[in-house]
Amino acid sequence: SCRVYNYDPLTQLKNVRANCYGKYIALRGTVVRVSNIKPLCTKLAFVCGTCGDVQSVPLPDGKYTLPTKCLVPECRGRSFTPDRSSPLTTTVDWQSIKVQELMSDDQREAGRIPRTIECELVQDLVDSCVPGDMVTITGIVKVASTEEGEITLSK
What we know:
- The protein contains 1 helix and 8 strands.
- Helix content is 3%, strand content 41%.
- The protein is mostly beta strands and 155 residues long.
Protein backbone atom coordinates (compact mmCIF):
# COMPACT_ATOMS: atom_id res chain seq x y z
CA SER A 1 0.00 0.00 0.00
CA CYS A 2 1.06 3.62 -0.40
CA ARG A 3 0.78 6.72 1.76
CA VAL A 4 -0.09 10.19 0.54
CA TYR A 5 1.68 13.27 1.92
CA ASN A 6 0.90 16.99 1.47
CA TYR A 7 -2.50 16.28 -0.05
CA ASP A 8 -4.31 19.45 -1.10
CA PRO A 9 -6.72 21.01 -0.54
CA LEU A 10 -7.30 20.82 3.20
CA THR A 11 -10.97 20.45 4.11
CA GLN A 12 -12.29 22.54 7.01
CA LEU A 13 -13.82 20.29 9.65
CA LYS A 14 -17.07 22.31 9.51
CA ASN A 15 -17.38 21.35 5.82
CA VAL A 16 -17.21 17.61 6.43
CA ARG A 17 -20.76 16.48 5.69
CA ALA A 18 -22.54 13.34 4.56
CA ASN A 19 -21.81 14.32 0.95
CA CYS A 20 -18.12 13.71 1.73
CA TYR A 21 -18.95 10.02 2.28
CA GLY A 22 -16.56 7.80 0.32
CA LYS A 23 -14.37 10.76 -0.66
CA TYR A 24 -10.66 11.12 0.07
CA ILE A 25 -10.00 14.28 2.08
CA ALA A 26 -7.29 15.90 4.22
CA LEU A 27 -7.86 17.97 7.35
CA ARG A 28 -5.80 19.53 10.12
CA GLY A 29 -6.59 19.55 13.79
CA THR A 30 -5.48 18.85 17.33
CA VAL A 31 -5.64 15.37 18.82
CA VAL A 32 -7.88 15.54 21.90
CA ARG A 33 -8.31 11.84 22.70
CA VAL A 34 -6.70 8.50 21.81
CA SER A 35 -8.23 5.09 22.51
CA ASN A 36 -6.46 1.95 23.63
CA ILE A 37 -4.91 -0.15 20.87
CA LYS A 38 -7.10 -3.09 19.88
CA PRO A 39 -6.78 -5.90 17.36
CA LEU A 40 -9.06 -5.44 14.32
CA CYS A 41 -9.90 -8.61 12.45
CA THR A 42 -9.50 -8.08 8.69
CA LYS A 43 -10.05 -11.69 7.57
CA LEU A 44 -11.85 -14.40 9.51
CA ALA A 45 -11.55 -18.15 8.87
CA PHE A 46 -14.74 -20.24 8.85
CA VAL A 47 -14.80 -24.03 9.21
CA CYS A 48 -17.45 -25.98 7.28
CA GLY A 49 -19.55 -28.03 9.72
CA THR A 50 -19.95 -30.83 7.13
CA CYS A 51 -16.46 -31.48 5.71
CA GLY A 52 -14.16 -29.31 7.87
CA ASP A 53 -12.82 -27.27 4.94
CA VAL A 54 -11.67 -23.78 5.93
CA GLN A 55 -12.38 -20.58 3.97
CA SER A 56 -11.30 -17.05 4.81
CA VAL A 57 -13.80 -14.18 4.57
CA PRO A 58 -12.71 -10.51 4.37
CA LEU A 59 -14.17 -8.26 7.07
CA PRO A 60 -14.57 -4.68 5.81
CA ASP A 61 -14.79 -2.46 8.93
CA GLY A 62 -14.70 -5.54 11.16
CA LYS A 63 -18.18 -6.71 10.09
CA TYR A 64 -18.81 -10.03 8.40
CA THR A 65 -21.54 -12.16 6.88
CA LEU A 66 -21.33 -15.93 7.18
CA PRO A 67 -20.26 -17.86 4.07
CA THR A 68 -23.30 -19.10 2.13
CA LYS A 69 -21.82 -22.40 0.94
CA CYS A 70 -18.77 -24.60 1.26
CA LEU A 71 -16.11 -24.08 -1.44
CA VAL A 72 -15.50 -27.86 -1.81
CA PRO A 73 -17.47 -28.90 -4.92
CA GLU A 74 -18.65 -32.30 -3.53
CA CYS A 75 -19.75 -30.76 -0.21
CA ARG A 76 -23.13 -29.08 0.21
CA GLY A 77 -22.28 -27.71 3.65
CA ARG A 78 -24.12 -24.58 4.71
CA SER A 79 -23.22 -24.28 8.41
CA PHE A 80 -19.96 -22.63 9.45
CA THR A 81 -18.07 -21.90 12.66
CA PRO A 82 -15.65 -18.94 12.95
CA ASP A 83 -12.09 -19.94 13.89
CA ARG A 84 -10.15 -17.02 15.35
CA SER A 85 -7.01 -19.11 15.94
CA SER A 86 -6.72 -20.26 12.30
CA PRO A 87 -3.66 -19.08 10.34
CA LEU A 88 -6.18 -17.81 7.74
CA THR A 89 -7.56 -15.33 10.30
CA THR A 90 -5.67 -12.02 10.13
CA THR A 91 -5.75 -9.02 12.46
CA VAL A 92 -4.12 -5.58 12.47
CA ASP A 93 -3.51 -3.08 15.26
CA TRP A 94 -6.32 -0.51 15.40
CA GLN A 95 -6.82 2.72 17.35
CA SER A 96 -9.44 5.46 17.37
CA ILE A 97 -8.47 9.10 17.87
CA LYS A 98 -10.59 12.22 18.22
CA VAL A 99 -9.35 15.30 16.35
CA GLN A 100 -10.61 18.82 17.11
CA GLU A 101 -10.66 21.60 14.51
CA LEU A 102 -8.18 24.44 14.80
CA MET A 103 -10.01 27.62 15.83
CA SER A 104 -9.07 31.23 15.30
CA ASP A 105 -9.16 33.65 18.25
CA ASP A 106 -12.32 35.38 16.98
CA GLN A 107 -14.12 32.02 16.71
CA ARG A 108 -13.13 31.32 20.31
CA GLU A 109 -14.31 34.74 21.43
CA ALA A 110 -17.66 34.09 19.74
CA GLY A 111 -17.99 31.15 22.15
CA ARG A 112 -18.43 28.54 19.43
CA ILE A 113 -17.83 24.97 20.54
CA PRO A 114 -15.09 23.41 18.39
CA ARG A 115 -16.11 20.52 16.17
CA THR A 116 -14.45 17.11 16.50
CA ILE A 117 -14.11 14.08 14.26
CA GLU A 118 -13.29 10.44 15.01
CA CYS A 119 -10.42 8.96 13.00
CA GLU A 120 -9.31 5.36 12.79
CA LEU A 121 -5.62 4.49 12.71
CA VAL A 122 -4.31 1.08 11.68
CA GLN A 123 -0.99 -0.75 11.54
CA ASP A 124 2.05 1.57 11.79
CA LEU A 125 -0.11 4.69 12.36
CA VAL A 126 -1.26 3.22 15.69
CA ASP A 127 0.43 4.91 18.67
CA SER A 128 1.80 7.66 16.38
CA CYS A 129 0.22 10.61 18.22
CA VAL A 130 -0.84 11.75 21.68
CA PRO A 131 -3.41 14.31 22.89
CA GLY A 132 -2.16 17.82 22.15
CA ASP A 133 -0.43 16.89 18.88
CA MET A 134 -1.37 18.94 15.83
CA VAL A 135 -1.92 16.51 12.96
CA THR A 136 -2.89 16.42 9.30
CA ILE A 137 -5.17 13.48 8.63
CA THR A 138 -5.79 12.12 5.15
CA GLY A 139 -8.29 9.38 4.55
CA ILE A 140 -11.64 8.27 3.20
CA VAL A 141 -14.73 9.54 5.01
CA LYS A 142 -17.17 6.92 6.20
CA VAL A 143 -20.33 7.28 8.22
CA ALA A 144 -20.11 5.56 11.58
CA SER A 145 -23.16 3.80 12.96
CA THR A 146 -23.08 5.62 16.28
CA GLU A 147 -25.89 7.26 18.21
CA GLU A 148 -24.36 10.69 17.62
CA GLY A 149 -24.21 9.98 13.88
CA GLU A 150 -20.68 11.30 13.79
CA ILE A 151 -18.64 11.05 10.62
CA THR A 152 -15.59 8.84 10.90
CA LEU A 153 -12.40 9.19 8.92
CA SER A 154 -10.76 5.93 8.04
CA LYS A 155 -7.05 6.02 7.32
